Amino acid sequence: MKVKPNKPASGRRFKQKARTLGRSSLTGTRVLRPVTKGGTISLDQVRSAVRALSAAADK
Amino acid sequence: MASDKPTSPEDVFVNCPFDDEYSDAFRALIFTIHACGFRPRSACEIDDGGEARIEKLYNLVKDCRYGIHDISRTELDKNNLPRFNMPLELGIFMGAKRFGPRLQKDKRLLIFDTEKYRYQKFISDIAGMDIHAHNADPECVIAETRDWLANVSRRQLPGARKVVEIYREFRAILPSLADRLDLEVATITYVDFERLVVGWLIDSTHIRATHKASTLFSNTLPDTALH
Question: What's the complex ipTM?
Answer without folding.
Answer: 0.80
